[in-house]
Amino acid sequence: MKNLVTGKYVVNNFDPQDVLYLRGDANYSRVHLRSGQILVSSRTLKWFVDQWSI
Q1: What pLDDT is attached to residue 5?
Q2: pTM, whole model, 2 decimals?
Q3: Exposure string (b/e) for 25-53, b if CB count within 10 Å is 16 or more?
Q4: Domain residues of the chain, as ranges?
């Protein structure tokens, strides 16, 4: 996974196949990865569904 720092934000690029599950929390999503890492995203669950064409 690569991190890209843009100003005060960090962009995490990860392979969708490394995702165990997503958990919604208001307008944020928690991305649980196989490595045990948990990322917090300002994207909604709907955004991930639309992007990943589940």
Answers
A1: 45
A2: 0.76
A3: eeeebebebeeeeeeebeebeeebeeeee
A4: 17-46
| Tokens linked to 43 | 């994207």
At 3, list the tokens: 């991190």
| Segments of the chain scoring below 70 in pLDDT | 1-10, 54
Q: What is the 3-state secondary structure (H, E, C) of the chain?
A: CEEEEECCEEEEECCHHHEEEEEEECCEEEEEECCCCEEEECCCHHHHHHHHCC
Which pLDDT score, from 0 to 100, does residue 32 have? 94
Return the closest-CA partner of residue 38 out of 51, 23, 49.
23
